[in-house]
Amino acid sequence: VPSEWKIEVEPEGKNENNKNEGAAIVFLSNGSKREEVGAVAFAREHSNNPLVEFDDQLDRVVARAKKVLKVRRELDELTVDDRVLT
Amino acid sequence: VSAGTVTATAWTVEGSGGRKLRVDTSDDRSLVTWLCGGQRSFDKERLQETIEYVARLERLGPDVWFTHADANGRRFSLRLEGDQLYAGDTPTSFEDIHVPWSAVRELLAPAPRRSSEEDGFMVNPSHTSLWSALRSWLRSLFH
Could you give the strand order of the β-sheet that contains A34-41, starting from the edge strand earlier in sequence? Predict the structure, then answer.
């Protein structure tokens, strides 16, 4: 059953030595759907923003997710279903 | 204690409704039992990683969930509001039960105790500020 949209951060991608080689993925999820908003590479030298620290980049992506979430909630409020289920 | 014996220690933190979070620690694992009875097992690395992410939640805000899996692949989600830590199997399966994060953090990763012998003169905060004041005074003499 879908619920309210939420922002999730989940680390993904570990190699055999259990070292982080992947990224922290930022999602919007509502219980039935999960949509990726962005990702932050653990290895900053392999990212598109190598000069930006991991935490700073995570802040940026989460801030973006919050904007998307705001728009998503506004759209949900604008959606009107006038039918009465019988 | 003979070699190879695992010394287990149990810790509890009282949460909402008088229910308790329990953490059983051994040399290489921590078994966390949430207030509802759900359990997750952590090796040291994953526990440290989880603690770091919860610290990030302090900055990211109460509307952000951290989702991960324990050492056995069982998923969990955490959320922080103020000092209160909420947990659930998923972000949508949260009950209104919580524990004070500061107490849990101290339990899971006690702050290292530094002796003045180990760390020397500069590490002690009171010494550091004293040293800083002394340097400022010395600078003022030459300006």
Answer: A34-41, A20-29, A6-14, B64-69, B75-81, B84-88, B98-100
Task: State the complex-level ipTM.
Answer: 0.82
Cβ contacts (< 8 Å) between B65 and chain A: which residues? Answer: 6-9
Q: What is the pLDDT of residues A17-29, one digit of tens each?
A: 655 579 999 999 9
CA-based nearest residue in chain A for residue B92: A31
For residues A46 and A44, give the distance between their C-alpha atoms in angstroms, rounded to a whole number.
Answer: 5
**Tens of pLDDT, residues B7-34:** 568 889 999 999 999 999 888 899 999 9
- B135 near A CB under 8 A: no
What would the mean pLDDT of A31-55 be, rounded to a whole number?
92
| Chain B neighbors of A18, CB-CB under 8 A | 45
Residue in the structure block whose two tokens are 């590490």: B123
The verdict on B94 touching A (C-beta cutoff 8 Å) is no
Specify the pairing of strand A6-14 against strand B64-69. parallel
* A7 pLDDT more than 90: yes
Nearest CA in chain A to B56: A55
User: B50-85: per-residue pLDDT in tens?
Assistant: 999 999 999 999 999 999 999 999 999 999 999 999
The packing angle between helices B44-60 and A54-78, to 10°, is 60
Residue A11 has its nearest CB partner, among B65, B68, B77, at: B68
